[in-house]
Design a protein that fits this description.
Layout lengths: L1 E5 L4 E5 L4 H13 L3 E5 L5 H12 L3 E3 L3 E5 L12 E2 L4 H11 L5 E5 L10 H8 L4 E4 L8 E4 L5 E7 L2 H10 L7 E8 L2 H13 L5 E3 L3 E4 L9 E3 L4 H13 L3 E5 L11 H9 L2 E5 L2 E5 L7 E3 L7 H9 L4 E5 L11 H11 L3 E5 L2 E5 L7 E3 L4 H13 L4 E4 L11 H7 L3 E5 L1
Parallel strand pairs: 2-15, 3-14, 6-7, 10-11, 18-19, 22-23
Antiparallel strand pairs: 1-23, 1-24, 3-5, 4-5, 7-9, 8-9, 11-13, 12-13, 15-17, 16-17, 19-21, 20-21
Length: 422
């Protein structure tokens, strides 16, 4: 599917969809828990649907609708009857590796072509230290991955190039037979670990930690059923924030809580530092265009923001440097290379760095660009098209549904000129 975008002004208010990160954590905790949990305001997208199917495969009984009801397994995970296909969801792959390791048996996990190229070796090595046999069928550290439990506990190390490796262990280890001790030798995206710890705290799971670099988690703990509303997603809000910042627009984004643990809330402050007019209220943010100026931004904690902030840099005076975010190369695509190449097609002055991008502000023109089947690349290029001269055509636009099925509908509701064609 192609997305055709023309220059636009945006005005009005929009309710930001629920957080993917919270929704999938809620599903995992509810699946491992005793009793029936209720998840209200969940994100219903291709990624979260993949997580629902994976949790069902591990024994969770899940009813979807306006709210999701999950009858958990009480910590007694059974080996699935078939291969678990996580589709395009890296979060689901990594979280299911540890959850499946609780079963006394074998689980096979795979996904689409992108998933089959994403590294999982550090998590497999960490699981080995906890008594789990995990290996890649192709011997390259990527899916398809075989996991054979049960997880016994013990001492292990994890190189958390992706925070999801550590979060995966933290969610599963409380249900292991014995205590687990985890040394974290590298950590990116720390706010997402804080989000996971918030879920453990709310479920009264016991653990010790030192500066997110060492954890001790007693085993044989039980998750209990819960009812919780999923907050709005700052990662999705980023595209609306940047759109307002680079066009002659005035937007109110609803459903966002700046006290939530999500790392991408810092994008609000980054755009404010660049010169956007920002007002933070109770569960809402108003943003209007200002005179944007470049600067240097460390995106280690917010790698998903790189595509949208690269677009913001194209419309800022001077130079914008996005640094310390080498892990952006390990997402659905190598987002550093992809964003550099696609924005250059639109006339951007972009230099690729090993750990990020350097962008010199100017004007963009419409062009035919590729979304590379990456939801965040598609949406970032669509935002660029709102401020570029002429028409922008983006291929593989259907990928936006991975996390944001209503992206085009909500944008057009604010005045964006966006249309799709097969």
């Amino acid at each position: 599917m192609k997305l055709i975008v023309k220059p636009s002004q945006l005005k009005g208010e929009v309710l930001i969809p629920a957080s993917k990160s919270h929704t999938i954590r809620a599903l995992v905790v509810a699946t491992l828990a005793d009793g029936v949990s209720e998840i209200t305001n969940p994100l219903d997208s291709l990624d979260t649907r993949a997580a629902v199917d994976a949790c069902r495969a591990l024994g969770g009984r899940i009813t979807t609708g306006d709210a999701w009801q999950v009858e958990g397994v009480g910590g007694k995970v059974a080996p699935p009857a078939d291969v678990i296909d996580v589709k395009n969801s890296g979060t689901t792959l990594y979280f299911m590796m540890s959850a499946a390791a609780l079963a006394d048996g074998t689980t096979v996990l795979t996904g689409d072509a992108s998933i089959r190229s994403r590294p999982a070796g550090p998590l497999m090595e960490a699981l080995a230290g906890l008594g789990v046999h995990a290996y890649s069928t192709r011997g390259n550290g990527c899916a398809p991955i075989v996991v054979r439990g049960p997880m016994k506990g013990g001492k292990t190390k994890v190189e958390a190039v992706s925070s999801q490796f550590l979060s995966s262990l933290l969610l599963a280890c409380p249900a292991a037979a014995g205590a687990s001790e985890i040394e974290v030798t590298q950590l990116n995206e720390a706010p997402y670990v804080h989000m996971t710890l918030d879920w453990l705290d709310l479920r009264a799971i016991r653990y010790e930690e030192r500066d997110l670099r060492w954890f001790r988690i007693p085993g044989s703990q039980r998750y209990h059923a819960f009812q919780r509303q999923v907050p709005g997603d700052f990662s999705s809000a980023t595209f609306f924030l940047v759109a307002a910042g680079i066009t002659d627009s005035d937007l109110r984004l609803l459903g966002l809580d700046m006290d939530d643990a999500q790392g991408d809330k810092e994008v609000v402050r980054m755009l404010e530092a660049m010169g956007a007019a920002v007002v933070v209220g109770t569960n809402e943010i108003r943003i209007r265009r200002g005179k944007l100026e470049g600067g240097e931004f460390d995106l280690n904690a917010t790698p998903d923001a790189l595509p949208a902030l690269a677009v913001a840099g194209c419309f800022a005076e001077g130079e914008t440097r996005l640094v310390n975010v080498a892990q952006a190369r390990l997402k659905e695509t190598d987002r550093i290379t992809v964003m550099a190449n696609e924005l250059r097609k639109m006339g951007a002055h972009v230099e690729e760095r090993p750990d990020g991008l350097t962008i010199r502000g100017g004007e963009l023109h419409g062009a035919r660009v590729s979304g590379h089947d990456d939801h965040r690349v598609v949406m970032a290029l669509a935002v660029a098209g709102l401020a570029a001269k002429g028409t922008t055509v983006i291929d593989t636009a259907e990928a936006a549904a991975v996390t944001f099925p209503d992206f085009v509908q909500l944008m057009t509701g604010l005045g964006a000129s966006m249309t799709t064609e097969e």
